[in-house]
Amino acid sequence: MNAQSTAPTRTATRAATASVGDFDVTAVRRDFPILAQQIHGKPLAYLDNAASSQRPQSVIDAISHYYEHDHANVHRGVHTLSQRATDAYEGARDVVRRFIHAKDTKEIIFVRGTTEAINLVAQSFARPQLQPGDEILISGLEHHANIVPWQLVCEQTGAVLKVIPISNAGEVDFAAFETLIGPRTKLLALAHVSNALGTVVPIEKFIAVARRLSVPVLIDGAQAVPHAKVDVQALDCDFYCFSSHKMLGPTGMGVLYGKQSLLERMPPWQGGGDMILTVSFTKTTYNQLPWKFEAGTPHISGAIGLAAAIRYLERIGMERIARIEHELLEYATHQLSALPGLRIIGTAPHKAAVVSFVLDGIHPHDIGTILDTEGVAIRTGHHCAMPVMEFYRIPATARASMSFYNTFEEIDRLVAALEHTRQVLG
Amino acid sequence: MDLKDLYRDVIVDHNRNPRNFGALHPADAQADGHNPLCGDRLTVYVKLDGDRIADAKFDGAGCAISVASASLLTEAIKGKSRTAVKELFNQVHALLTQQDAQADTARLGKLAALSGVREFPARVKCASLCWHTLNAALDNAPAAPVSTE
Question: Which fold has domain A25-30+317-425?
Answer without folding.
Answer: Aspartate Aminotransferase, domain 1 (3.90.1150)
